[in-house]
Amino acid sequence: DTSPNTTYQKTYYALYNYFKGVNTMGLLIERTVPIRVIGQIDPKTDQIVDCHIMFYIPEMYSVNAPAPLSVEIFVGGDWKKRCYVVNINGKYTWNRAFKIYRALKSFLAKKGIKDVTKDEMILDIYSGYGIPNSKKYAELMICRNEKY
Fold first, then answer.
1. Does the predicted model carry a pTM greater than 0.90?
2. Are 11 and 71 in contact (CB under 8 A)?
3. CB within 8 Å of 14: residues ≥ 6 apart
4. How far apart are alpha carbons 114 and 91 in whole angstroms?
5. Structure confidence by residue, pLDDT tens digits, 2-38
6. How many CA atoms lie within 13 A of 24 on its CB side?
7. For the chain, what is the HEC assignment?
């Protein structure tokens, strides 16, 4: 199955295992928030075709992070982008996130904003571990083509 949910789960568990010590140093690494899910969108069909997931490496490992054992994981830096953001409170699913993505894309088009990525939806998930209030909360982003 190559659905976004199946790809997400497979990638999530590979990354989860990295933080649980399945890495070259056998280190348990504290997980961070947000979990960032980047959905790759086919511009022809406007459907999610793949996704990538990332955690942020805690500061104490930022210079010398252990290498992953899984070929699906790489350790690298994040890049800064300018993005348009919509807060999502409550339950988030791929379907709900994608509806919000389409609504935001439509809103930006109506406002004449054209320099946004056409093939990427970013979802930052802030709920779960490390959050005292376990209410579900996420931010959906569409980013500009430029980097700053």
1. no
2. no
3. 70, 72, 73
4. 30
5. 565 666 777 788 888 888 999 999 999 887 778 888 8
6. 9
7. CCCHHHHHHHHHHHHHHHHCCCECCCCCCCCCCCEEEEEEEECCCCEEEEEEEECCCCHHHCCCCCCECCCCCCCCCCCCEEEEEEEEECCCCHHHHHHHHHHHHHHHHHCCCCCECCCEEEEEECCCCCCCCCCCEEEEEEEEEEEC
